[in-house]
Amino acid sequence: MSPTRRELVKATRARILEAAARLARDRGPNGFSMDLLAKEAGVARATVYEHFRSKRAVLDELASSTSQSLALEQPDSDIGDSLTALRDMLASVCRHWHEHEAEVRELRTLVAVTGADAPTDGVDHAYLKCLVDGLVAGGHLRPRWSAADAVDALALLTSYSTYEQLRRAQERTPEQVEAVLAKLAVSIVSPSG
């Protein structure tokens, strides 16, 4: 396949997915047919089926691409001061989830319909491990916490589910959620080392 043909195929697939996203947003994941999708994308029905064998395949791909678009950009693995990195990470996660609440709701709807596995984790597990290693090296991890437990706890603290629960429980602002997360993180770390 020539590079030009490959680019055309990729662009057509993207156009179909964009149309599917619009339809899913406007009508819900079950509110459109493959025929309507073809019309919305401006392509023939056969073209939609060349790219996706079923509506389920379209919705699975949509869930996957939405999940990838929600991934939080990870800071450099060179953490420096682990306590500052932890504080910055919590602030970054709260801003991120606040900015992407609508996309997470769309993703959850897609996951409910398709059963796809599309996580809404806040921070990459490898980054959390590096951060906890820095806390351990600096003597900042409280004695009752193992490094593995601390990584798991931080993964839970930075997940969308935790953010959502804290935000909606008392109609907190993202800044207030960040303050609660910082208080929870203190149970894991000891600032004095």
Structure description:
The chain is mostly helical and 193 residues long. The chain folds into two domains: 3-53, Arc Repressor Mutant, subunit A; 82-185, no CATH class. 69% of the residues lie in helices and 0% in strands. Helix 1 (3-27) packs across helix 2 and helix 2 (34-41) packs across helix 3. The model has no long low-confidence stretch (mean pLDDT 87).
The number of strands is 0
Radius of gyration: 21 Å
Amount of beta strand = under 5%
Which runs of at least 5 residues are low in confidence (pLDDT < 50)? none
Give helix and strand order, one letter per element, not per position: HHHHHHHHHH
How many H/I helical runs?
A: 10
What class would the helix/strand composition place it in? mainly alpha
Q: What global shape is seen?
A: elongated
Q: What is the overall pLDDT average?
A: 87
Note the gap between the termini: 59 Å
**Major sheet summary line:** none
Q: Could you state the oligomeric state of the chains shown?
A: single chain
Q: What number of domains? A: 2
* Helix coverage percent: 55-70%
Please write out the topology.
Blueprint: H1 3-27, H2 34-41, H3 45-51, H4 55-69, H5 82-99, H6 101-114, H7 125-137, H8 147-157, H9 160-169, H10 174-185
Quick structural summary:
This protein is an all-alpha fold and 193 residues long.
Quick tags:
mainly alpha; Arc Repressor Mutant, subunit A; 193 residues; 10 helices; 2 domains
